[in-house]
Design a protein that fits this description.
The chain is mainly alpha-helical and about 550 residues long. It has helices spanning about 10-15, 25-45, 70, 80-110, 115-130, 165-175, 180-200, 205-215, 220-235, 240-250, 255-270, 270-285, 290-300, 305-320, 320-340, 340-355, 360-370, 375-390, 395-405, 410-430, 435-445, 450-465, 465-480, 485-495, 500-515, 515-530, 540-550. The protein has 27 helices and no strands. The radius of gyration is 23 Å and the shape is globular.
Length: about 550
């Protein structure tokens, strides 16, 4: 299940189109933009507050884009106005950096021959300038709706349809009311949401500063603690997310955000029995769309697709906002696609796009479903639109595989371009402190450095034992020629009953490689029976492997 998007958000990449220039000029222009926008954040540091002020120590350095949170942390109302404005300025700078990096994807469509050098050069410039990327969660992670706030800040502020305007309003409010702990918590949540909708993790240090400010003003304030849980999950620090969710629930056992974040953390740590109990508890305390969708995913992971579908349909009956409708119908579309019910999936995605025609999970899901139905031209066009706006690892890999499957003149090079961009985004994410090891393992195993894939998969497995990390580690071991070791993890990935054709395909290949021919046939047939178009390249390989195993 993908996070909700702001209803009226317009990514910078849609407004900024590069001029017709040479590849070298593109590199120069983008490098200049990224360097100018990121110079401040690359050089500045933020002084940590008192150790007792937050549940977790702040990093030694953080970008100057902490902005409003930093400027007002120690200033009174009369002192804060000029400095607080820098929060808006630095946010604009971050937007410029993200727009610049996004133009890498746009430019590479017109300059295929220069793409490899272009990406490498831009990556080096962006890293030294403190550029930022990667704001979307994998593994069906979510960002719940913004919690209500106190002290004069309207709870509807962030649901107004214009997140950037809401942030500016919050900043203006906090310049005159810097002791509003509720306002600081809401601003932190807004920054987390901006990071997700803009693909811009530079907002994460800003969010942390805002939450810290809220907690300094009112220790144990549950919305701020719940916000810290959401922030930790966004950074893929799921142990931290669980800690802060538990702290928030000690203060307010009915906090919807904390209840939801606790389910997310337990799922992503692979503690599925505990996640199921947490979902039951959340459903008894705060039934609604955020809890229903998580409840459904927990059941899907345990193989109970019928319950998952029923709960999502129930969630849809309670959804009223465009964001909730798009979110739930996209989750239903993904569930249908996972089971090979492509026509139902397209119906759900159409409903999601009727509510929000820019909803990226629905656009991506529709393209994936079109590919499974054999409409490769529409799938490629749709996925190109997705990566033009948000060139994140999963859609980039999917687009690359669509090019490879088509096999037209120049498609092999186009595919390599997508995989190169995956490497660039992942490197930048790591440089900014976001854990992207699972993305690395999944992309590199099939389309990159197999040694790097195995290293990343082992690192992710050391942090959390989920079906996704088990599958990634098993496959990375297989492509590294270590099938005997891989078999344990491939079997573990399918042990919960989770119905995932890709997992079954990986298991079948590894069973065959270890001499278990009957098991291999069973797994490969199950993968193709479940979702015959699960991957442009994987489904084709699964059919060949099944024929060979007959």
């Amino acid at each position: 299940m993908s996070p909700r998007t702001n209803d009226n958000a317009t990514p910078d990449a849609e407004r900024a189109k590069p001029a017709e220039v040479t590849p070298e000029a593109v590199v120069t222009e983008v490098a200049a933009e990224v360097s100018a926008a990121g110079a401040t954040s690359a050089e500045a540091t933020v002084e940590a507050g008192p150790a007792e002020s937050t549940p977790e120590a702040k990093p030694a350095e953080a970008p100057a884009e902490a902005g409003l949170a930093e400027a007002t942390a120690e200033a009174g109302p009369a002192e804060v106005t000029a400095e607080a404005a820098s929060g808006s300025d630095s946010a604009d700078g971050a937007d410029e950096r993200v727009a610049a990096v996004r133009r890498l994807s746009q430019s590479q469509r017109r300059w295929r021959a220069a793409q490899l050098g272009f990406c490498a050069t831009a990556l080096a410039v962006a890293m030294t300038a403190g550029a930022v990327v990667l704001g979307a969660l994998r593994d069906n992670g979510t960002t719940p709706a913004v919690a209500a706030v106190s002290n004069g800040v309207s709870p509807q502020l962030l649901a107004s349809g214009d997140l950037d305007a809401s942030v500016l309003s919050l900043q203006a409010h906090l310049r005159s009311q810097p002791k509003d702990f509720g306002g600081w918590a809401t601003l932190g949540l807004a920054y987390v949401e901006q990071a997700r909708t803009k693909g811009d993790p530079s907002r994460y240090p800003q969010a942390q500063e805002a939450f810290d400010r809220s907690l300094r003003l009112r220790p144990d304030y549950d919305p701020a603690l719940a916000g810290r849980a959401a922030l930790a999950a966004a950074r893929h620090d799921f142990a931290g997310a669980l800690k802060y969710a538990d702290l928030a629930l000690r203060q307010n056992p009915y906090s919807e955000r904390a209840l939801s974040s606790r389910i997310d953390a337990l799922v992503e740590l692979g503690r599925y029995d505990d996640a199921s109990e947490a979902a039951d508890l959340a459903d008894s305390r705060r039934p609604g769309v955020p809890v229903f969708t998580r409840f459904a995913y927990v059941h899907e992971l345990r193989g109970d697709v019928k319950t998952a579908r029923r709960v999502l349909e129930q969630a849809l009956t309670t959804a009223t906002s465009r964001g909730d409708i798009s979110y739930v119908t996209s989750a239903l579309g993904q569930l249908a696609w996972n089971q090979g019910d492509y026509h139902s999936a397209l119906t759900y995605y159409a409903r999601a796009l009727a509510a929000d025609d820019n909803y990226l999970p629905a656009l991506e899901g529709r393209a994936r479903t079109q590919a499974a139905l054999g409409d490769r031209a529409a799938a490629i066009k749709g996925m190109e639109q997705v990566v033009q706006r948000f060139p994140l690892p999963q859609p980039l890999v999917e687009l690359g595989e669509l090019y490879e499957a088509r096999g037209a003149a120049g498609d092999a090079e186009k595919a390599r371009d997508q995989y190169t961009l995956v490497d660039a985004w992942i490197s930048l994410a790591h440089a900014y402190g976001v854990n992207a090891d699972l993305d690395t393992a999944l992309a590199a195993a099939d389309h990159g450095d197999r040694k790097a894939a195995l290293t990343a998969a082992r690192a992710e497995w050391a942090r959390r034992h989920t079906v996704h990390t088990a599958d990634a580690l098993g496959w990375a071991l297989h492509v590294s020629g270590r099938d005997a070791e891989a078999l344990r993890y491939a079997r573990q990935a399918t042990a919960t009953g989770y119905r995932n054709a890709s997992f079954l395909y990986h298991l079948g290949v590894i069973e065959e490689a270890t001499g278990h021919t009957d098991r291999a046939r069973t797994a490969l047939k199950a993968a193709l029976d479940l979702n015959p178009g699960f991957s442009p390249l994987g489904a084709r390989a699964a059919r060949k492997a099944l024929e060979a195993a007959q």
